[in-house]
Amino acid sequence: MPDKNTEELEYVMKRYRSAVYGVALANTRSHADAEDVYQEVFLLYFTKDLVFENESARQAWLIRTCLNLCRTLRRSVWRSRRDDRDVEQLPGKAPLSPAECEVWQAVKSLPERSRTAVYLYYFENMPVSEVASALGISEGAVQMRLTRARKQLKASLKEGGYFG
Amino acid sequence: MDRDNIFESIKQKQQPDASLDREIMERTAKLKAGRKEMLSCKNETANENAIHALSSVGQLKPRRLGALAACAAVTVIAVMSAAAVMHMDKPDTDTEGKTPVIDIDSGTEGTAGQDSAEAPGDTAPVIESVRVTIPQTRACMEESEYQFDITDETACGEIYEIIKVIELVKGEYPAAERPEVGGWEGFQLTVTFDGGDTARYAFDTSGMTESLTIVYNEDMENVEKYDLPLGYIRMAADAVNKHSSVKVDLSSIGDADSILPEQEDLQPAREIYEKAKHCTGNFTTVRGKYVTATDLEYTFGGEMDLYYFRCTAAEFRADTRTCETFFSEKVIRGDDISEMTRADGVTSFDMDGSDYRRCICDGERLVETDEQYDNYSEDYIKDIAEYRIYERILPLRGHIYTDPGWTVESGDEEYLGRRCVRLSHSYTDKNSALGYDSEALIDAETGVLMWFCTLRSDGAVVNSLKVIEIEFGCDIESCEIPDLTGYSRARNKKDGDQDSAG
Fold it and tell me: What CATH number does the domain containing A112 carry?
């Protein structure tokens, strides 16, 4: 594991950029907010003197911090009345196909606790045990969240059978 | 497109900008430079500059500046700037009519965003933060003070909203009209913001909640529905049903559909809410007598949160009908043993030398800590308070009863003298070679979950629960004072306790 220096930060960012950004996006439902959270997570990572036993612990810290920052953002009274129309697309980003849009919309419409579990499990391909560590819940609880989410997603997605 | 491909494709199209990574690297480089300078610096002024540079770099600026945000932020900054120029505090002796006091903290020199090499030591003070004192009003029962960084748009928005809300409270609700319902004092406000959009807020002013509760806006869009008092609603409605002379008026909160998320498993709460909403009058002390009681013992899996804490055993007393809990438990983490005891809806416990005191409610609410960035404490508390109740009992029951994956084994078996049915369930993890097998015993007569265990295919116990003693028809005398904050103040009636609570 690299030392805590620039190389390490680069390594960590490269490895976890997708997961952190994805969790932030799934939770804030806004690219702009996700970018803010994304930056802050890695700055916090750098500014705190953290020691991790293994990569799993590091991953859990990053995701939990990301979720906390998203929660803080959501609590903001200010944000509650903000225009969120930049959610779907930012310039320079490849557009989602209609099918992808439908799936993404369905995932975003899930309750927060299920949404994050679904993102980590289906999009980041994290095993249940790692999702559990990242969310600070048991593996059984992850299964329950996924089961509930699948039920909701199945109902909201007309075709595709992605969550059957 | 198959499932895995579509997820991968969505993920790839939603990657963060590379410029973000560069920006983070630049900021961290500046932080490092600032730290280095601070460590090597003996000159006090230069040291201050270095510290300032660090804090400036560390202060992130939101990347988006939406039209609405810009509008409000400019308004607030303009207000702050005017106050700064005049160096004016506005103390007000009128309790009801006080306006927020804005103190300008001008002690910091330099300009936000400058690095240490550029930070001038002799320029005019640049205002970077303001202190807003919220006087005691009907909306704020205690005087409180907030410090905001005015270089942060979000903070400016907060100040702006606080000021606007206080003005509205003052203007719209003279003391005589303050609604009071069963210990709950609340307002519903309609706020019009710059740009013309409006939002309605429900305020709890009883002091039981720690923040404003935003319920909904006019068009029901773009508003987070914060913690919902479902625990209360359920309990209140239950009390209404049991005691026809007891009434509660929830109408000021709005329609159930407005505040309850569209979620299938909340349907019972929604129905109960609708019933309760149409009752009028005041709550007084309500005596609840429970018809069943269960002592449960939890055994937490050894691998759960391995590097955060290990909770090997906990005990509590639960009412199986309402899922209310009255408990005293020990949490074992390494060699440290912490205890928590619930009393009147407030749980205090000690952890690593820090005292945390938070309201913990009825298994439906989140628990928060001051240290939002401190994952350890937050998750610890969540685990104890929310997860243990919410994630264990309720979903376990719901899961078992609704998940078609559960198989009911033939025959029945006895557990603690009760006739039980055995259920089993298998779960395959698509992302690992591990799978999970769960089994449960459910009391055939009452549906009480008597025993539950999930084993991972490598043999680890990841989830287990067992009833160690059960007694039916046993009253637990308790006192309840329902209130609309969502926090129930309830406790067991123990030796020497008085009936009143809260």
Answer: 1.10.10.10
E strand or H helix that includes residue B329: strand B325-333
Q: Are A82 and B378 within 8 A, CB to CB?
A: no
**Cα distances (angstroms) measured from residue A92 to each of A112, B14, B107, B286, B422:** 28, 11, 42, 60, 56
Instruction: Look at residue A118 in the predicted model and tell me its pLDDT.
Output: 92
The answer to whether A130 touches B55, Cβ cutoff 8 Å, is no
Nearest to A100 among B9, B212, B308 (CB): B9
Q: Which residues contact B498 (CB under 8 A, 6 or more apart)?
A: none
In a shared domain, residues A42 and A101: no
d(CA B415, CA A123) in angstroms, rounded, equals 42
Distance from CA of A154 to the nearest CA of B (A): 13
User: What is the number of structural domains in chain A?
Assistant: 2
DSSP strand pairing (B129-134 vs B346-351)? unpaired
Q: Which residue has the higher pLDDT, B160 or B290?
A: B160
User: ipTM more than 0.90?
Assistant: no
- Quick check: B222 and A82 CB within 8 A? yes
| Span B44-70, average pLDDT | 33
Residues of chain A in contact with residue B193, where contact means CB-CB under 8 angstroms, are 81
Q: In the beta sheet, which residues pair with residue B408?
A: B423
**By the 8 A CB rule, do B88 and B149 touch?**
no
Tell me what pLDDT residue B88 has. Answer: 26
Sheet arrangement for strand B477-481: B286-289, B477-481, B489-492
The pTM assigned to this predicted structure is 0.49
User: What are the tens digits of pLDDT across the range B143-196?
Assistant: 444 444 444 544 444 544 454 444 444 344 443 443 333 233 343 433 333 344
Q: Which residue is closest to A7 within chain B, CA to CA?
A: B25
Q: Which residue ranges form the domains of chain B, and what is each CATH number?
A: 24-178 (no CATH), 224-286 (no CATH), 292-474 (2.50.20)
Burial class (CB in 10 A: 0-12, 13-18, 19+), B111: middle
Is B28 within 8 Å of A6 when comparing Cβ atoms?
Answer: yes
Task: Tell if the CB–CB gap between A36 and B63 is shorter than 8 Å.
Answer: yes
- A139:B431 CB<8 A: no
If asked whether residues A44 and A15 sit together in one domain, one would say yes
